[in-house]
Amino acid sequence: MAIPAYKAPSRNAYDIVIVGGAVVGSSTAYWLSQALGNGASILVVERDSSYEFSSTALSTSAIRQQYSNPINVKISQFGIEIIRGFQERMAPFYPNETAPDLGFKEHGYLYCCSPEGVEAARERVELQRSLGAHTVFLEPGALKERFPWLNVDDLGGGSWGSREEGWFDSMGMLNGFRQAARGSGVEYIDNAVTALDVVDRRVVSVRLATGETVACGTLVNAAGPRAQQVAAMAGLSIPVAPYKRYSFVFASANPIPGRMPNVIDLSGTFVRPEGELFLTGNTPQGDGPADYDDFEMHFEEFDDYIWPALWHRIPAFDALKVQSSWTGHYEYNMLDHNGIVGFHPEVRNFMFANGFSGHGLQQSPAVGRAVSELIVHGAFQTLDLSPFRYERVPRNEPFVEEAVI
What we know:
The chain is an alpha/beta fold. It has 2 domains: 13-58 and 170-239 and 335-395, FAD/NAD(P)-binding domain, CATH 3.50.50.60; 106-166 and 241-329, D-Amino Acid Oxidase, Chain A, domain 2, CATH 3.30.9.10. 27% of the residues lie in helices and 26% in strands. A hairpin with a 6-residue loop joins strand 17 (340-343) and strand 18. Helix 1 runs parallel beside helix 7. The protein is globular and about 65 Å long. The two termini are 28 Å apart. The model has no long low-confidence stretch (mean pLDDT 96). This is FAD-dependent oxidoreductase. Residues 15-374 form the FAD dependent oxidoreductase domain.
Protein backbone atom coordinates (compact mmCIF):
# COMPACT_ATOMS: atom_id res chain seq x y z
CA MET A 1 0.00 0.00 0.00
CA ALA A 2 1.66 3.22 -1.15
CA ILE A 3 1.80 5.97 1.46
CA PRO A 4 2.78 9.54 0.58
CA ALA A 5 5.99 10.96 2.01
CA TYR A 6 5.37 11.90 5.62
CA LYS A 7 5.43 15.54 6.62
CA ALA A 8 6.49 17.05 9.93
CA PRO A 9 4.19 19.43 11.87
CA SER A 10 4.95 23.16 11.91
CA ARG A 11 4.76 23.46 15.71
CA ASN A 12 5.76 21.43 18.74
CA ALA A 13 2.46 21.91 20.63
CA TYR A 14 -1.22 22.03 19.70
CA ASP A 15 -4.37 22.65 21.67
CA ILE A 16 -6.17 19.85 19.80
CA VAL A 17 -4.74 16.92 17.85
CA ILE A 18 -7.17 14.91 15.69
CA VAL A 19 -5.96 11.43 14.66
CA GLY A 20 -7.57 10.72 11.29
CA GLY A 21 -8.44 13.21 8.59
CA ALA A 22 -11.23 11.45 6.73
CA VAL A 23 -14.82 12.63 6.96
CA VAL A 24 -15.35 12.31 10.75
CA GLY A 25 -11.99 13.88 11.56
CA SER A 26 -12.43 16.63 8.98
CA SER A 27 -15.99 17.37 10.08
CA THR A 28 -14.70 17.68 13.65
CA ALA A 29 -11.89 19.96 12.48
CA TYR A 30 -14.37 22.10 10.55
CA TRP A 31 -16.78 22.59 13.46
CA LEU A 32 -13.94 23.25 15.91
CA SER A 33 -12.41 25.82 13.58
CA GLN A 34 -15.73 27.63 13.22
CA ALA A 35 -16.32 27.62 16.98
CA LEU A 36 -12.80 28.61 18.05
CA GLY A 37 -11.50 30.69 15.15
CA ASN A 38 -7.90 31.65 15.79
CA GLY A 39 -8.32 30.94 19.50
CA ALA A 40 -6.92 27.41 19.30
CA SER A 41 -4.24 25.51 17.38
CA ILE A 42 -5.57 22.35 15.73
CA LEU A 43 -3.55 19.59 14.05
CA VAL A 44 -5.05 16.78 11.94
CA VAL A 45 -2.77 13.78 11.44
CA GLU A 46 -3.76 11.68 8.42
CA ARG A 47 -1.69 8.66 7.43
CA ASP A 48 -2.68 8.82 3.73
CA SER A 49 -4.02 12.06 2.32
CA SER A 50 -4.87 10.32 -0.96
CA TYR A 51 -7.64 8.63 1.08
CA GLU A 52 -7.35 5.69 -1.31
CA PHE A 53 -8.18 3.15 1.39
CA SER A 54 -10.29 5.34 3.67
CA SER A 55 -13.78 4.19 4.60
CA THR A 56 -15.05 7.56 3.34
CA ALA A 57 -13.72 7.01 -0.19
CA LEU A 58 -14.80 3.36 -0.30
CA SER A 59 -18.27 3.82 1.18
CA THR A 60 -21.54 3.57 -0.73
CA SER A 61 -22.24 7.22 0.22
CA ALA A 62 -25.87 6.96 1.30
CA ILE A 63 -28.04 8.53 3.98
CA ARG A 64 -31.33 7.38 5.46
CA GLN A 65 -33.75 8.25 8.23
CA GLN A 66 -35.06 4.70 8.62
CA TYR A 67 -33.64 3.89 12.04
CA SER A 68 -35.21 2.44 15.18
CA ASN A 69 -33.63 4.96 17.57
CA PRO A 70 -34.85 8.57 17.62
CA ILE A 71 -31.34 9.98 17.98
CA ASN A 72 -30.16 8.23 14.80
CA VAL A 73 -33.13 9.68 12.92
CA LYS A 74 -32.29 13.18 14.17
CA ILE A 75 -28.61 12.75 13.31
CA SER A 76 -29.59 11.91 9.72
CA GLN A 77 -31.99 14.84 9.53
CA PHE A 78 -29.15 17.18 10.39
CA GLY A 79 -27.01 15.39 7.82
CA ILE A 80 -29.65 16.04 5.16
CA GLU A 81 -29.71 19.71 6.14
CA ILE A 82 -25.94 19.91 5.69
CA ILE A 83 -25.99 18.01 2.38
CA ARG A 84 -28.68 20.27 0.91
CA GLY A 85 -26.86 23.46 1.89
CA PHE A 86 -23.31 22.18 1.54
CA GLN A 87 -22.28 24.15 -1.52
CA GLU A 88 -23.52 27.42 -0.05
CA ARG A 89 -21.92 26.66 3.34
CA MET A 90 -18.56 25.87 1.75
CA ALA A 91 -18.58 28.71 -0.81
CA PRO A 92 -16.55 31.15 1.35
CA PHE A 93 -13.70 28.63 1.44
CA TYR A 94 -13.56 28.30 -2.36
CA PRO A 95 -12.89 31.91 -3.43
CA ASN A 96 -11.49 30.98 -6.85
CA GLU A 97 -13.54 27.89 -7.70
CA THR A 98 -16.96 26.39 -7.23
CA ALA A 99 -17.57 24.68 -3.91
CA PRO A 100 -18.59 21.01 -4.15
CA ASP A 101 -22.18 20.19 -4.98
CA LEU A 102 -22.82 16.83 -3.32
CA GLY A 103 -25.21 15.72 -6.08
CA PHE A 104 -27.84 14.39 -3.69
CA LYS A 105 -29.91 11.66 -5.37
CA GLU A 106 -33.12 11.74 -3.35
CA HIS A 107 -34.43 8.32 -4.42
CA GLY A 108 -35.10 7.02 -0.90
CA TYR A 109 -34.59 3.65 0.73
CA LEU A 110 -36.97 0.72 0.39
CA TYR A 111 -36.72 -1.82 3.22
CA CYS A 112 -38.32 -5.12 2.26
CA CYS A 113 -40.22 -6.59 5.19
CA SER A 114 -41.01 -10.23 5.95
CA PRO A 115 -44.59 -11.17 6.99
CA GLU A 116 -43.28 -11.81 10.52
CA GLY A 117 -41.64 -8.38 10.68
CA VAL A 118 -44.63 -6.25 9.70
CA GLU A 119 -45.59 -5.14 13.20
CA ALA A 120 -42.05 -4.06 14.09
CA ALA A 121 -41.66 -2.32 10.72
CA ARG A 122 -44.89 -0.39 11.23
CA GLU A 123 -43.72 0.70 14.68
CA ARG A 124 -40.45 1.98 13.23
CA VAL A 125 -42.34 3.88 10.53
CA GLU A 126 -44.59 5.48 13.15
CA LEU A 127 -41.54 6.50 15.19
CA GLN A 128 -39.80 7.97 12.15
CA ARG A 129 -42.90 9.88 11.05
CA SER A 130 -43.39 11.25 14.58
CA LEU A 131 -39.91 12.79 14.23
CA GLY A 132 -40.70 14.38 10.87
CA ALA A 133 -39.46 11.68 8.51
CA HIS A 134 -41.42 10.89 5.35
CA THR A 135 -41.37 7.10 5.67
CA VAL A 136 -44.47 5.19 4.59
CA PHE A 137 -45.37 1.52 5.03
CA LEU A 138 -46.67 -0.15 1.88
CA GLU A 139 -48.65 -3.38 1.83
CA PRO A 140 -47.53 -5.93 -0.81
CA GLY A 141 -50.19 -4.80 -3.29
CA ALA A 142 -49.28 -1.12 -2.96
CA LEU A 143 -45.59 -2.04 -3.09
CA LYS A 144 -46.09 -3.92 -6.36
CA GLU A 145 -48.13 -1.07 -7.80
CA ARG A 146 -45.44 1.50 -7.04
CA PHE A 147 -42.49 -0.74 -7.94
CA PRO A 148 -43.84 -3.22 -10.53
CA TRP A 149 -40.38 -4.74 -11.09
CA LEU A 150 -40.27 -6.00 -7.47
CA ASN A 151 -41.12 -9.58 -6.45
CA VAL A 152 -43.39 -9.18 -3.42
CA ASP A 153 -44.59 -12.81 -3.16
CA ASP A 154 -42.70 -13.51 0.07
CA LEU A 155 -42.99 -10.01 1.56
CA GLY A 156 -45.30 -8.64 4.23
CA GLY A 157 -44.72 -5.17 2.79
CA GLY A 158 -42.01 -2.56 2.76
CA SER A 159 -41.07 0.75 4.34
CA TRP A 160 -40.13 3.45 1.87
CA GLY A 161 -38.49 6.77 2.58
CA SER A 162 -40.29 8.88 0.02
CA ARG A 163 -38.18 11.98 0.70
CA GLU A 164 -34.89 13.05 2.31
CA GLU A 165 -33.10 9.74 1.80
CA GLY A 166 -30.71 8.70 -0.92
CA TRP A 167 -27.03 8.96 -1.85
CA PHE A 168 -24.47 11.67 -2.46
CA ASP A 169 -20.80 12.46 -3.17
CA SER A 170 -18.75 11.20 -0.21
CA MET A 171 -15.45 12.70 -1.33
CA GLY A 172 -17.16 16.01 -2.08
CA MET A 173 -18.22 16.15 1.56
CA LEU A 174 -14.77 15.16 2.83
CA ASN A 175 -12.98 17.62 0.56
CA GLY A 176 -15.36 20.42 1.52
CA PHE A 177 -14.92 19.93 5.27
CA ARG A 178 -11.16 19.60 4.82
CA GLN A 179 -10.85 22.72 2.67
CA ALA A 180 -12.97 24.75 5.08
CA ALA A 181 -10.99 23.55 8.09
CA ARG A 182 -7.67 24.37 6.44
CA GLY A 183 -9.01 27.71 5.31
CA SER A 184 -9.86 28.43 8.93
CA GLY A 185 -6.36 27.72 10.20
CA VAL A 186 -6.38 23.96 10.87
CA GLU A 187 -3.08 22.27 9.98
CA TYR A 188 -3.17 18.92 8.16
CA ILE A 189 -0.10 16.72 7.87
CA ASP A 190 0.61 13.40 6.16
CA ASN A 191 1.93 11.39 9.07
CA ALA A 192 1.07 8.53 11.40
CA VAL A 193 0.66 8.58 15.16
CA THR A 194 2.88 5.85 16.62
CA ALA A 195 2.47 6.46 20.36
CA LEU A 196 0.70 8.59 22.95
CA ASP A 197 2.27 9.77 26.20
CA VAL A 198 -0.16 9.68 29.14
CA VAL A 199 0.68 11.43 32.42
CA ASP A 200 -1.68 11.84 35.37
CA ARG A 201 -4.57 10.43 33.32
CA ARG A 202 -4.11 12.88 30.45
CA VAL A 203 -2.62 12.56 26.99
CA VAL A 204 0.23 15.05 27.16
CA SER A 205 1.90 14.40 23.81
CA VAL A 206 1.68 12.57 20.51
CA ARG A 207 4.60 10.80 18.83
CA LEU A 208 4.75 10.77 15.06
CA ALA A 209 6.27 8.40 12.52
CA THR A 210 8.74 11.11 11.50
CA GLY A 211 10.15 11.16 15.04
CA GLU A 212 8.60 14.35 16.38
CA THR A 213 6.80 14.54 19.70
CA VAL A 214 4.13 17.25 19.86
CA ALA A 215 2.41 18.39 23.03
CA CYS A 216 -1.35 17.96 23.04
CA GLY A 217 -4.17 19.63 24.97
CA THR A 218 -7.00 17.39 23.70
CA LEU A 219 -6.69 14.20 21.65
CA VAL A 220 -9.52 13.21 19.27
CA ASN A 221 -9.57 9.63 18.04
CA ALA A 222 -11.14 9.78 14.56
CA ALA A 223 -9.06 6.94 13.16
CA GLY A 224 -11.94 4.99 11.60
CA PRO A 225 -11.23 1.25 11.39
CA ARG A 226 -7.92 1.83 13.21
CA ALA A 227 -9.69 3.31 16.23
CA GLN A 228 -8.65 0.50 18.58
CA GLN A 229 -5.01 0.94 17.58
CA VAL A 230 -5.13 4.56 18.72
CA ALA A 231 -7.09 3.77 21.88
CA ALA A 232 -4.51 1.12 22.84
CA MET A 233 -1.76 3.74 22.66
CA ALA A 234 -3.42 5.39 25.67
CA GLY A 235 -3.95 2.06 27.45
CA LEU A 236 -7.65 2.06 26.49
CA SER A 237 -9.88 -0.37 24.64
CA ILE A 238 -13.01 -0.15 22.52
CA PRO A 239 -14.81 -2.99 20.69
CA VAL A 240 -14.13 -1.52 17.24
CA ALA A 241 -12.47 -3.43 14.40
CA PRO A 242 -12.32 -3.32 10.59
CA TYR A 243 -14.92 -5.50 8.89
CA LYS A 244 -14.72 -6.00 5.14
CA ARG A 245 -17.52 -4.95 2.81
CA TYR A 246 -17.50 -5.78 -0.91
CA SER A 247 -19.13 -3.42 -3.39
CA PHE A 248 -19.99 -4.32 -6.97
CA VAL A 249 -21.11 -2.11 -9.85
CA PHE A 250 -22.93 -4.06 -12.53
CA ALA A 251 -24.80 -3.61 -15.79
CA SER A 252 -28.18 -5.22 -16.39
CA ALA A 253 -29.45 -6.32 -19.77
CA ASN A 254 -32.91 -5.21 -18.61
CA PRO A 255 -33.37 -1.64 -17.39
CA ILE A 256 -35.42 -0.86 -14.29
CA PRO A 257 -38.10 1.72 -15.15
CA GLY A 258 -38.91 4.71 -12.98
CA ARG A 259 -37.19 6.18 -9.97
CA MET A 260 -35.57 3.20 -8.28
CA PRO A 261 -34.79 3.54 -4.55
CA ASN A 262 -32.00 1.84 -2.63
CA VAL A 263 -33.61 -1.57 -2.11
CA ILE A 264 -32.70 -3.47 1.07
CA ASP A 265 -33.63 -7.13 0.60
CA LEU A 266 -34.58 -9.58 3.36
CA SER A 267 -31.21 -11.26 2.70
CA GLY A 268 -29.35 -8.07 3.63
CA THR A 269 -28.33 -7.48 0.03
CA PHE A 270 -28.85 -3.91 -1.17
CA VAL A 271 -29.03 -2.53 -4.69
CA ARG A 272 -29.51 0.94 -6.14
CA PRO A 273 -29.03 2.67 -9.49
CA GLU A 274 -25.70 4.28 -10.26
CA GLY A 275 -26.29 6.22 -13.46
CA GLU A 276 -27.03 3.61 -16.13
CA LEU A 277 -25.49 0.94 -13.92
CA PHE A 278 -26.29 -0.45 -10.46
CA LEU A 279 -24.42 -0.66 -7.17
CA THR A 280 -24.83 -3.63 -4.83
CA GLY A 281 -23.35 -5.21 -1.73
CA ASN A 282 -24.26 -7.31 1.29
CA THR A 283 -23.07 -8.54 4.67
CA PRO A 284 -20.47 -11.09 3.57
CA GLN A 285 -20.45 -14.71 4.63
CA GLY A 286 -18.20 -15.41 7.61
CA ASP A 287 -18.29 -11.74 8.55
CA GLY A 288 -15.62 -10.99 11.13
CA PRO A 289 -12.70 -8.69 11.93
CA ALA A 290 -10.14 -8.23 9.16
CA ASP A 291 -6.53 -7.13 9.20
CA TYR A 292 -6.11 -3.38 8.93
CA ASP A 293 -4.42 -3.67 5.54
CA ASP A 294 -6.56 -6.48 4.13
CA PHE A 295 -8.47 -5.15 1.13
CA GLU A 296 -8.43 -8.39 -0.86
CA MET A 297 -11.54 -8.78 -3.00
CA HIS A 298 -13.75 -11.88 -2.76
CA PHE A 299 -15.41 -11.92 -6.17
CA GLU A 300 -17.34 -15.10 -5.41
CA GLU A 301 -19.52 -13.12 -3.01
CA PHE A 302 -21.36 -11.69 -6.02
CA ASP A 303 -21.96 -14.94 -7.90
CA ASP A 304 -22.70 -17.12 -4.89
CA TYR A 305 -24.80 -14.82 -2.70
CA ILE A 306 -25.58 -11.38 -4.11
CA TRP A 307 -26.79 -12.26 -7.61
CA PRO A 308 -29.19 -14.99 -6.45
CA ALA A 309 -30.70 -12.56 -3.93
CA LEU A 310 -31.01 -9.82 -6.56
CA TRP A 311 -32.59 -12.15 -9.11
CA HIS A 312 -35.12 -13.38 -6.57
CA ARG A 313 -36.17 -9.89 -5.49
CA ILE A 314 -35.95 -8.22 -8.91
CA PRO A 315 -36.56 -10.86 -11.63
CA ALA A 316 -35.40 -8.45 -14.35
CA PHE A 317 -31.89 -8.91 -12.94
CA ASP A 318 -31.44 -12.22 -14.78
CA ALA A 319 -28.59 -11.06 -17.02
CA LEU A 320 -25.95 -9.06 -15.14
CA LYS A 321 -22.31 -8.23 -15.74
CA VAL A 322 -20.00 -6.82 -13.07
CA GLN A 323 -18.20 -3.72 -14.33
CA SER A 324 -16.11 -2.84 -11.27
CA SER A 325 -15.72 -3.80 -7.62
CA TRP A 326 -13.84 -2.81 -4.48
CA THR A 327 -13.35 -3.70 -0.84
CA GLY A 328 -13.88 -1.20 1.97
CA HIS A 329 -13.77 -1.41 5.75
CA TYR A 330 -16.57 -0.73 8.21
CA GLU A 331 -15.28 0.56 11.56
CA TYR A 332 -17.54 -1.95 13.21
CA ASN A 333 -18.65 -1.50 16.81
CA MET A 334 -19.10 -5.08 17.97
CA LEU A 335 -21.07 -4.01 21.05
CA ASP A 336 -24.09 -2.40 19.39
CA HIS A 337 -23.24 -1.03 15.90
CA ASN A 338 -23.59 2.57 17.14
CA GLY A 339 -20.93 5.26 17.39
CA ILE A 340 -18.83 5.95 20.48
CA VAL A 341 -18.71 9.71 21.04
CA GLY A 342 -17.32 11.44 24.11
CA PHE A 343 -14.40 11.77 26.51
CA HIS A 344 -12.96 8.80 28.35
CA PRO A 345 -13.93 9.13 32.05
CA GLU A 346 -10.39 8.44 33.28
CA VAL A 347 -8.07 9.65 30.51
CA ARG A 348 -9.98 12.86 30.61
CA ASN A 349 -8.75 14.59 27.45
CA PHE A 350 -9.08 11.53 25.18
CA MET A 351 -12.10 12.00 22.92
CA PHE A 352 -13.71 9.13 21.02
CA ALA A 353 -15.39 9.60 17.64
CA ASN A 354 -15.46 5.97 16.54
CA GLY A 355 -17.39 2.82 15.76
CA PHE A 356 -20.10 4.07 13.40
CA SER A 357 -20.44 0.68 11.72
CA GLY A 358 -21.06 1.89 8.18
CA HIS A 359 -22.97 5.03 9.21
CA GLY A 360 -19.95 7.30 9.69
CA LEU A 361 -20.29 9.26 6.48
CA GLN A 362 -23.98 10.11 6.91
CA GLN A 363 -23.50 10.82 10.62
CA SER A 364 -20.29 12.84 10.26
CA PRO A 365 -21.88 16.32 10.16
CA ALA A 366 -23.70 15.78 13.46
CA VAL A 367 -20.84 13.87 15.08
CA GLY A 368 -18.25 16.49 14.19
CA ARG A 369 -20.49 19.20 15.61
CA ALA A 370 -21.13 17.16 18.78
CA VAL A 371 -17.41 16.52 19.38
CA SER A 372 -16.75 20.23 18.92
CA GLU A 373 -19.45 21.09 21.46
CA LEU A 374 -18.01 18.72 24.04
CA ILE A 375 -14.53 20.18 23.61
CA VAL A 376 -15.59 23.83 23.52
CA HIS A 377 -18.53 23.83 25.96
CA GLY A 378 -18.08 20.63 27.95
CA ALA A 379 -21.59 19.47 27.01
CA PHE A 380 -23.77 18.82 23.99
CA GLN A 381 -25.46 22.02 22.82
CA THR A 382 -27.67 20.85 19.95
CA LEU A 383 -28.33 17.12 19.54
CA ASP A 384 -27.88 15.18 22.77
CA LEU A 385 -25.63 12.26 21.83
CA SER A 386 -25.35 11.03 25.42
CA PRO A 387 -26.47 7.50 24.43
CA PHE A 388 -23.25 7.28 22.36
CA ARG A 389 -20.94 8.02 25.29
CA TYR A 390 -18.06 5.68 26.05
CA GLU A 391 -19.35 4.73 29.49
CA ARG A 392 -21.74 2.13 28.05
CA VAL A 393 -18.77 0.09 26.77
CA PRO A 394 -17.22 -1.06 30.08
CA ARG A 395 -20.72 -1.57 31.49
CA ASN A 396 -21.54 -3.80 28.50
CA GLU A 397 -24.81 -1.94 27.99
CA PRO A 398 -25.56 -1.89 24.25
CA PHE A 399 -27.45 1.04 22.77
CA VAL A 400 -29.20 -1.12 20.21
CA GLU A 401 -30.10 -0.01 16.70
CA GLU A 402 -32.36 -2.54 14.97
CA ALA A 403 -32.03 -1.11 11.46
CA VAL A 404 -28.48 -2.13 10.67
CA ILE A 405 -27.37 -2.97 7.12
